[in-house]
Structures are given as structure tokens and as C-alpha cells.
Amino acid sequence: MKKLCAAAALCLAALGLGPAPLAFSQEKMPFVGPVYEIFPGSFADSDADGLGDLMGVAEKADYIASLGVRAVWLTPFYPAQSYHGYDVVDYCAAKAQMGGLEAFDALVSALHARGISVLCDLVLNHTGSEHPWFLEACRALSSGEESPYTDYYVFSKTKEPKMHDVPGAPGWYYLGEFTYTMPDLNLDSAAVREEIERIVRFWLERGVDGFRLDAITYYYGGDTVRNTEFLTWLMETIRGVRKDAYVVGEAWTDDATISRLYESGIDSLFHFSLADTGGEIIGAVRNQNGARLARLIAGTDFAGTDAVFLTNHDMARSAGMLTSNPQKMRAAAAAYLLSPGIPFIYYGEEIGMTGSGRDENKRLPMVWGEAAYTCNPPEMADQKQKLQKGVMDQEEDPDSVLNMYRRLLTIRNAHPEIPSGRPVALDLGVKAIFALDYGRSIAIINMGKTSVTVAIGMEGTLDCEGGAALENGRLTLEPWAAAVITKAD
Ligand code: CA
To answer: At 306, is the secondary structure helix, strand, or coil?
Structure first.
């Protein structure tokens, strides 16, 4: 029996599938991705002022749903000092130019109506230096008055590394691990913890389904024991408000440290060693070594739900790293979309957007191809977007990167054993072949530039992307193609 699998044939079926309802359980996996990361300032502009806004995201809810994602992570949209939003000055508001809380509520409704959860960014390591808490603390120090807010930050009369002069208070210094405009909060302060509980409650009661935690490893300057203790408290606090809230943390560090941070009970931590230019997935594509990557992923044993991704807003975009070659983009996408855990897709990755160098270049406007929604680039961006054909053009083209992502996500979503799986790596004797055995099915990717035929010794039904055929227990995969074989009963 020969089963051919053509990309175009699958395409129409893929487009016809709507999002399945969210699967919540109280077990280890409280919610199943995939998640779409959006930088709202560059996503879609609903009122033609050139700035992306929350209503713009809401108006693109059908597009987001059409990808097959189950949640959206919004990077900070709070009043803040910088365009990136990670220097918050008001934790319980949305920027006026983003449409304020009214637009936020409309966005949550639009996404929830489509079965899509909403995750907000929680920046707890530091505030912006213009936050009223910090301004009041500095005022008190400069006037010699008592103030509860001096306990909110880490002030000292000795200048240690990463400390900055307190404006107006000579001889006083404050900790700002990232920079002087981001003073670190004193996370040991009972008052700060009360504020955090209030912030978490504010958003969860507004309908938010979970959080992405910024800069976990900075909470206590790289002290993993104390970072884990704080995270444990934070998870208890969040769960105390909403038992099934999902929390994913940014700990940009090695797998061993990530393993220890899972002791806090956090749902997920981003798997940084797989991501970025020097990461394992891009490395596997460049070295045409899928077998090694499959062993690494099968060997991952975190005490939570792995959060897998290719790049995020802090990294050069993957299309550039893969020379905008759609076939290599397919293999890289398949490697994390057909892996266990929750995949995070950075907006624009699914259409092949480029951007590297300055952070602003990594957050260039989403290319819709519709003038009405196009945002201005962040002010300091010094690169132009190389991608010419945006969403509108790609919708029409079955061979587009966009439709390739949709089909891969459709395959993933049709196989619940993938997100919750603990697969075994299969050695099929070919270095380029990535193969994970999930029990019910096998995910296979040819991470090489030549067509490969391997003996898998079984029959089954074939879902594929990029060209594959299964005949008499032998699977042929075109270059950079991916397939999932569901084993025959
Ligand atoms: Ca706008």
C-alpha cells in the first residue's frame, strides 16, 4: 500500500479546521498550547496613528485563531517608559495609545470567544525608574523623611556592582541589574509582595488566564535557591486566585538551572538551549543532524511542561538564520512544533519575517499587506523588513510559509500524544533524520538536503508536510520534510 502525501491537498483541510476547545485539567499539564507571542506595538494598528494597539490585535482574532494556536502571550502593554514596555510605571492599566483597559477587555472577549487564552507579561524583577513607588522613595531619601516606599527597592549607602546614584540623594545608591532606568524591586519586602498579589489578582479577575514571568534569574541576582523560593511563593499566590492559571517563566539559562527552578511548581519554563542562533534547533538544521536533536529532546526530563520555541522578541528572527529558505524554515518549525510541551510562536515567524541586530529590528511591524493595519517600525529600528509578501498574499498561496505553519499546527493539534508525550528517540541509521516515537505515533523530520528512505517496519496513516510516502514499511521523506505516522492498530 502506497500513501502519498502532498502539501497542497492537506492545505484546504487545514484551513477548514477551527480551533478546538481548550483542554484544562488539574494534572501536570494545566493547559495545552500552542501559544502565539505578540508585541502589541507592532502587530496591528486599529486607528491609523501608526502604533499597534490592543484593538488592532482584537480585530485580528480570526487570523490568530486560523493559525491553530490556543493562547496569546501579550508582551507588556502597560504604561511604561520605553516602547518595549519592560519598564512599567503602572501595573494595573493599559497604555492610552494601546486603547486602555476598555480595549484590553474587548481583546480578551474576542480571543476567549475563539477558544484562545490570554497570557500577560509580569515584570516583577524591576519597575521603571518613573514608577510612583520609586519616585516617592527617592524623594523621601533626598529629604531625609521616612517612607514605606524606601523598602520597595534595594537602597544602600555603599556602591556595589549594578548600583546607581539616587537622584537628589548624594551618598545613596540603588540596585538596577539591567540599567539605571529599571530599579530592582526588593522582593523580600512584605509590602512589595502585597502589591504583587494585588497585581496578579487584578489581571486574573479581569479574565486573564495566566502569565509569562520576565527575568526570573534576576530576582535574586542569579541565586537559584532564593529565586526558586520566591517563585514558589508566587505560584502559591497565583494559584490562590485562580487554580488553573498557567504560568511560564523566562529563565535565560542552562537546562540544569531550569530543572531546579521547576521545583517551584511553575508550569513551564522556556527551553532556551533549543532556541536562538546558537541553539540546538537551528544548529540541527545547519549541521543536518536531526538524530542528535531528537536524542536531546527525548532526553529532556523537566518536572513540568517544557516551553519550546525557535526565537522570541530578544533574538534575531529565525528566517534570517535560515537564509529565508522555506524548506529549512519548515524543518526548524517542525522540530519544535512536533516536540513535547507547549510551543511558542513569535508573531511574524509564521510568515517568514526578518530582523536582527538592535532589539527594535526584532520587533518590526507585522506584514499584513493591508495598509489599514500596518504599524510604523519602532523609532530606533535601523533595518528594513526583507519579507515582501505579507499575510494577504500568503493566504492565497498553498506553498506559502504561512500555510506551511498552519498545516504543521493542524498535524500537531490532531495528535494529543505529542504535547503530553514522553517520547523515545528512534535511531533510523541516518544522521539527518529526527525521529520521536510517541507510542501512538512517530514524528519524523528529514533535516537534510537530500531525499531519504528509511525502514520503519510498520504501516499506518501518514500526515506530512513537504512530501512523504509510506510503502511496505519504508518511509521516503523529501528534503526538509516532516511527517507524523499514526500506527495501524
Ligand atoms: Ca494605533
So the answer is: coil
Do 103 and 70 reside in the same domain of the chain? Answer: yes
The reported pLDDT for the residue numbered 8 is 37
From residue 207, give the alpha-carbon distance in Å to each of 25, 120, 176, 238: 18, 11, 32, 13
Helices then strands (H, E): number in the chain? 14, 20
Same domain, residue pair 315 and 242: yes
Domain CATH number, residue 284: 3.20.20.80
Residues 122 and 136 in one domain: no
pLDDT tens readout for residues 141-184: 999 999 999 999 999 999 999 999 999 999 999 999 999 999 99
pTM of the full structure: 0.94
Q: Which residue has the cell 530582523?
A: 355
CA–centroid distance, residue 85 to ligand 1 (Å) = 16
Q: Rounded to the nearest whole angstrom, what is the distance from the C-alpha of residue 338 to the centroid of ligand 1? A: 36
**150 and 238 belong to one structural domain:** no
Active site residues: 214, 250
Percent of the chain with pLDDT over 90: 92
The answer to whether 453 touches 464, Cβ cutoff 8 Å, is no
pLDDT digits (tens, 9 = 90+) for 63-117: 999 999 999 999 999 999 999 999 999 999 999 999 999 999 999 999 999 999 9
- Asked whether residue 245 is domain-assigned, the answer is yes
Pairing label, strands 117-122, 71-74: parallel
Q: State the residue range of the domain holding 365.
A: 30-127+188-413
Residues 167 and 35 in one domain: no
CA of 370 to the centre of ligand 1 (A): 14
Residues 150 and 222 in one domain: no
| pLDDT (0 to 100) of residue 460 | 95
Question: How far does Cα 469 stand from its chain's mean position?
Answer: 33
Report CA(19)–ligand 1 centroid distance (Å). 28
**86 CA from centroid of ligand 1 (Å):** 19
